[in-house]
Amino acid sequence: MSESLTSRRGARIWLVLGVVVLVGLMGLLRGVSLDTGTDSAPADSESSRVTELLEKFPGADEGTLLVVASRPDGAALDPNDLSELEPLVPALEEATDGRALGPFPSEDGEAAVVQVTLTVGDDAEHAVELVREVTASQAGDLTLQVTGGPAFGVDVAASFDGADFTLLIVTIAIVAVLLIVTYRSPVLWLVPLAVVGIADQVANKVTAGLGNLWDLQFDTGIVSVLVFGAGTNYALLLVSRYREELHHQTDHRAALATAWRRTVPAIVASNLTVVVSLLTLVLAVIPGTHGLGVSSAVGLLIALAAVLLVLPPALAICGPRVFWPFVPRPDAARHGRVWRRVATGVVRRPWVPLITGVALLGVMAAGLVGTTVGLSQVEKFRVPSESAAGLETLADHFPPGQAQPLTVVAEAEHADEVADALDSVPGVVRVSQPTESNDQEWVKFSVTGEPAPGTQESHQLVVDLRAAADAVPGEVLVGGQSAVDVDARDGNTRDLLLIAPLVLLVTLVVLVLLVRAAVAPVVLLVVNLASATAAIGAGSWLSRTVFGWDALDLQVPLLSFLFLVALGVDYTIFLVHRAQSEAARVGTRAGMVNALASTGAVITSAGVVLAGVFAALGLLPLVTLGQIGLTVCLGVLVDTLVVRSLVVPALFSLLGDRMWWPRRIGSARPTPPEGEESDHDVPSRVPVAG
Q1: What was the pLDDT predicted at 560?
Q2: pLDDT under 70: residue ranges of the chain
Q3: How far, in Å, CA of 650 to CA of 635, rounded?
Q4: Left (φ > 0), alpha (ψ -120 to 50) or beta: where does 454 sit?
Q5: Quick one: which of 122, 79, 619, 593 has its CA closest to 336?
Q6: What is the DSSP letter of 57?
Q7: How many CB atoms lie within 10 A of CB 184?
Q8: What pLDDT sits at residue 125?
Q9: What is the signed CA dihedral for 267, 269, 275, 278, rounded to 10 degrees?
Q10: Cα–Cα dist 177/198, whole Å
Q11: Nearest 5 degrees, angle CA 212-CA 218-CA 223?
C-alpha cells in the first residue's frame, strides 16, 4: 500500500480521493453544531430524577431570578434606598409578565433582594436580558445584580462566545510555530498543518452530528485539542522518518514508502492505545465523561486516516524540495549527535539518571498532599460574571443556603410526614409549604439550609436529608444544586475507580502486542503510571499556589490520568518500537542508543507540540479545562524530557536483553543493509558502569 500512496499516479489519486472525502464530509455536515446538555450528575441519580419530576409541576417552564441590591460603598441601605427599589417590582412584572416580590432587606441591612418568577422556556437568554434591561433603568445610586439559576446559565454560555474560535486560532499558531522550529523550513510545516487542520474540522462536524444523534454530552475543545495534538504527533513521526530515509535513498518516493511502512506500526499502536482507552469512557456514568469517550475516539480515528492516507501522497507530490532550504541528500552524515551523546551517557551510567528521574517524579507527586477535589458552581468559571457576583453578595448578607435552596419531591399522600422529617434535620432553616403536581401524585418542597452552597457542610446536609427521607414511607427524592454536587462526586469517584484500571490494562495489552514480550510492557507501564501520578500532583500544587484554584474539579483526576497514560505512552511506543528493531542488529543497549539518537529530536518536538496544544485549553473560561490543560502539559513535558530520555533508556541499560523476555532479541547481529551504516554506527556493546 505504501507504493500506491507514494507512486506518481497513485499519489494523485489518493490525494484527490482524500480531499474529496474530507471536504465532502465538511460540506455535508455544514451548519451542524453540538446542541446537547451539560449535565454534571449521572442520568439515573436522585438529583436527575428530581429534575425530571419537576416537569410534572405547574410552572415547569418558569425560572426564578434574584435582583440583589447593595450600596457601592458597602454601607447599610437607608429607607430612601429601599423606597427607590419599590418601583422596580411593578416595572419587572409589566415587562416580563411574571411575578415579582420584595424588596426583602437582609438582617444586617446592607442588602435587599427582589424575587422575579417568569416564564423562561427555551429562551433563557432573552428572559435574563429583559430583567437586566429593566433593572439597569431602575438602578439609581444602588448596585443591582441579577442572579439565580437562569442568569448563571446564560452568563456561563456567554463566557464561551468566541472561545472555541480563539482556541482554534491559538492552537494553529502554536502548532505552526513549533513545526517551523522543528523542520527549519518556511514551507514544510504547511503540508502537515493543512492536513491535520482539515481533519480537525471534519472531526468537529462528525462528532457534533454523532453527539446530537446519540444525545452525547462532551466538550468540543478537548476533542479539537486531541485531534490537533495527536495528528501533529503522527505527522512529525512520519515526516521525520521520511527525512531520515532521504539520507539513504535517491528516490524520494521510495524513501517515503519506506518511511510509511516503518512508522505505521508505531503510529497505529499509539492511536489504538488512545482510542481504546477513550472508549472505556463509555462505561462512565457522568454524561460529559461518557460522551467524551466516543467523540474523542472518532476524532482520533479521523486524524489517523488523514495522516496515513492523505499526508503521504501530498508529500510525494511535493517531493524533497518541501524541506527547503535544508533538503536532505543521500550521504553518510551523522544526525542526532546531541541525542546520541545523551543516550550513550545514560546507557554507560544508568543509575545516576534513573535515580535523578525517579527523585523528580517523587517530588512532583508530593503535590498530591493536601489536594482536595470539588469546586463550587461559582468556582468552576474563571471569567467574572454578574450572576456569580450576585450570588456572592447574596451569600454575604443573607442565610447562605438561601442562594441555592434544595428541592425535595415526595409522594403526595405522605406530604405531612415528609415535612416533619425535613424540619427535624439539623441545619435546615426553613421548609416551604408543599406544591402539588399537575397529576396530584407528587408534592415538592423548597428547603433552605444554613450551609453555604458548595461547602462540605452543604453536601452533608444533602446526605442527612436523604437519610431522614428514607425513614418516611413512599418515594422521597432530594435535588437541587448541592444534591447535584453530591451525586456528581459519587459518580466521578465511581468512574475513576472503574476506568483507571481499565486504561492501564488497555495500555499493557497494546504494549504486549507491540513488543511481544513480558518484561518490557510491565516496566514501561509502571514508569508511565509513576509519570502520570507525578504530573497530577504537580498540576494540583500549581493550581493551588499559582492560580488560586483551591481544589481540582471533579472530572480532572480521571481525564488527566487517561490523557497522561494514553498519550504519554505514545512516546514510549515510538522509542521502544525503534529500539526493538535496532536491538536485533546491535543488541539492546546499543540499540537503545541508536533509537534515542534517531527519534530524540522528533519525539521531543512532538511532546512540545502536544504540551503547547493542551496548554491552550487555559484560554477557555472553564477552570476544569484549565486544570486539565496544565496537568497534561506538565505530564507530557516530563514524559518527553525526563521519562523517555533518561528513565526508560536507563532501565533498558540495566535490564539489557532481559527486557525482551521470553524472546531472545539481542542475540543475533546481522550486518546492516548497505547505505544504513550511519543509522547504526555504535558498537554492539556499549560500556556500562559496574
Answers
A1: 95
A2: 122, 331-336, 666-690
A3: 19
A4: left
A5: 593
A6: S
A7: 12
A8: 86
A9: -120
A10: 18
A11: 105
